[in-house]
Write a structure and sequence with these properties.
56% of the residues lie in helices and 7% in strands. It has five helices and two strands. It has a two-stranded antiparallel ribbon. Strand 1 and strand 2 form a beta hairpin.
Length: 113
């Protein structure tokens, strides 16, 4: 099965019913011949649906993640902790107190009025 057509199938049909006319239109538009393993026939509704394998298929990620060694991981943790030292904690504390006072005043005003 050509895996490059699967995202197009997912986008075009999703989990809706597929008629014979839909299949022919897809073949004309995309230049692929419809393969029987792309869909399953539902006798009750007299139409096809994409197979669960097609619906659940996800393109493999192009990015390859490499595991960090303990030394590299430790260096990253130390770097993040060092960046934390540069935060202006006084401004942050002032902002938190102002927010707290706003909540208190708002609650009092809401209860009284």
């Amino acid at each position: 099965m050509n895996k490059s057509i699967i995202p197009t199938l997912q986008k075009t049909f999703g989990d809706r019913a597929i008629s014979t006319e839909d299949k022919q239109a897809f073949e004309r538009e995309h230049g692929f011949e419809w393969q029987e393993d792309w869909s399953e026939y539902d006798e009750g509704e007299d139409c096809d649906y994409l197979t669960p394998e097609i619906l659940e298929y996800q393109k493999p990620s192009q990015e390859k993640y490499e595991a960090l060694g303990l030394g590299e991981l430790e260096e990253r943790i130390v770097d993040v902790l060092e960046e934390g030292k540069n935060i202006k904690w006084g401004k942050l504390a002032l902002g938190m107190w102002l927010f707290f006072l706003f909540i208190v005043v708002y609650t009092i005003v809401e209860t009284l009025f």
